[in-house]
Design goal:
Blueprint lengths: L7 E7 L7 H12 L3 E7 L5 H7 L5 E6 L4 H11 L1 E2 L1 H6 L4 E5 L2 E5 L2 H12 L8 E5 L3 H12 L4 E6 L2 H11 L7 E6 L3 H8 L2 E6 L17 E9 L8 H8 L4 E3 L2 H16 L6 H13 L1
Parallel strand pairs: 1-2, 1-3, 4-6, 7-8, 7-10, 8-9, 10-11, 11-12
Antiparallel strand pairs: 3-5, 5-6
Helix pairs in contact: 1-10, 5-6, 5-10
The structure holds 2'-monophosphoadenosine-5'-diphosphate (ATR).
Length: 291
C-alpha cells in the first residue's frame, strides 16, 4: 500500500533527541511564514541511521536536520547516495538533508548560522578582524569555510591537541587568498598574541562546555573590546563564557542564536522562504530561562 501524505514532513534525527529545540523552532517558522508542514524529533540509534535515511523520503519526508551523533555518518550517506553542497563537502559533516525530485542534497548550515548570528544579531563585522577558533573537531570543521568567506584578517585554529588544529588549518589553507589561516596548540596562544597581537573575536567550538569544563586562555588573548562566543548555550553562562567574564571580557554571547540561524538557513533551503529569526530567538531565550 502506498501512503499518501497530504503535508510535507520534516524531522530532526539524533540520539538522544528529547532535548532538541528544533521542533519548536521549525513550528514557529512554519506558523510565521504560513507554510503547511510537520516537523518531528526522531530518536535514531547510530545503527539505524542509513536505513532511516533510505526510508524517510518514501514516507513523505522532504527534509531532515541531523544532530549529535549522526553528523559525520549522515555526511558519508549523502556522499554515497546523493550530492553534497560545497560547504558540506569540506566540512565532513552535515546538519541538513533535502529531498526533491533530483534526489538527496546534504548541506551544512551551521557555519552560515554562526556568521548570521555574529554579524546580524550581535553586530560584529568579521572583515579585517583577528579571529581565534578553539577546537579542531566536527563543530570547527563545519564553520571554517563560512568564516573564511567573511574575510577576517587572520583565522587561528587552536586546539588542546595541536596536530589536529594544524591539520585542519592546512586543509583549508588554499580556500582564502585574503585570510591568514594556521593552527596551533592552546599552549602556544600566548606566544602567538605576543607576536601578532590580541584577537577581536574568540569562538569556542570545543565540547569542553558539555562536560562543564572551562578553557583557560592566557590573559590578553582578546583586545579590550574583544568578543567571546560559545557555540554551546544554556540557562546560565557556559563555563567558557563565565571564565571570560571573570577575566574582564565585556562582550559575550552563547550559541542559542546560532541554533536559530542554522535552522532558518535549513528552512529556507527546504521551503524557499527565509523566516524572521529574532522573535523565535527571543521566545527560546525566555523558555530557557524558565526551565
Ligand atoms: P565536535 O564534533 O563537537 O567538535 P569532537 O570532534 O569530539 O566534537 O571534538 C571535540 C573538540 O573539543 C576537540 O577539539 C577537543 O580537543 P582534542 O582534539 O584535544 O581532544 C576539544 N575539547 C574537548 N574537551 C576539551 C577540554 N576540556 N579542553 C580543551 N579542549 C577540549
Amino acid at each position: 500500500m502506498t501512503l499518501i501524505h497530504s503535508i510535507d514532513r520534516y524531522a530532526v534525527l539524533g540520539h538522544p533527541i528529547h532535548h532538541s529545540l528544533s521542533p519548536v523552532i521549525h513550528a514557529a517558522f512554519a506558523a510565521q511564514t504560513g507554510q503547511h508542514l510537520s516537523y518531528e524529533a526522531l530518536d535514531i540509534a547510530p545503527a539505524e541511521l542509513s536505513a532511516t535515511l533510505s526510508r524517510l523520503p518514501r514516507e513523505g519526508y522532504r527534509g531532515v536536520n541531523i544532530t549529535v551523533p549522526h553528523k559525520e555518518a549522515a555526511w558519508a550517506f549523502a556522499r554515497q547516495h546523493g550530492k553534497l553542497s560545497d560547504r558540506a563537502a569540506l566540512a565532513g559533516a552535515i546538519n541538513t538533508i533535502a529531498w526533491d525530485d533530483a534526489g538527496l542534497l546534504g548541506d551544512n548550515t551551521d557555519g552560515q548560522g554562526l556568521i548570521n548570528d555574529l554579524q546580524q544579531r550581535h553586530g560584529l563585522q568579521l572583515r579585517g578582524q583577528r579571529v581565534l577558533l578553539l577546537g579542531a573537531g566536527g563543530a570547527t570543521r563545519g564553520v571554517v569555510l563560512p568564516l573564511l568567506a567573511a574575510n577576517p584578517a587572520a583565522l587561528i585554529i587552536a586546539n588542546r591537541t595541536a596536530a589536529k588544529a594544524e591539520m585542519l588549518a592546512q586543509l583549508f589553507s588554499s580556500k582564502s587568498e585574503t585570510t591568514a589561516i594556521y593552527g596551533c596548540g592552546l599552549d602556544a596562544l600566548s606566544a602567538d598574541t605576543n607576536r601578532h597581537g590580541a584577537f577581536d573575536l574568540v569562538i569556542n567550538a570545543t565540547s569542553a562546555s558539555l562536560n562543564g569544563a572551562a578553557i583557560d586562555l592566557p590573559p590578553g588573548t582578546l583586545t579590550a573590546h574583544g568578543f567571546a562566543y560559545d557555540m554551546m548555550y544554556g540557562k546560565v553562562l557556559t563555563p567558557f563564557l563565565d571564565a571570560q567574564k571573570t577575566a574582564g571580557v565585556l562582550h559575550l554571547a552563547d550559541g542559542l542564536g546560532m541554533l536559530v540561524e542554522q535552522a532558518a538557513v535549513a528552512f529556507a533551503l527546504w521551503r524557499g522562504v527565509t523566516p524572521e529569526t529574532q522573535p523565535v530567538y527571543r521566545a527560546l531565550r525566555e523558555r530557557l530561562a524558565r526551565h
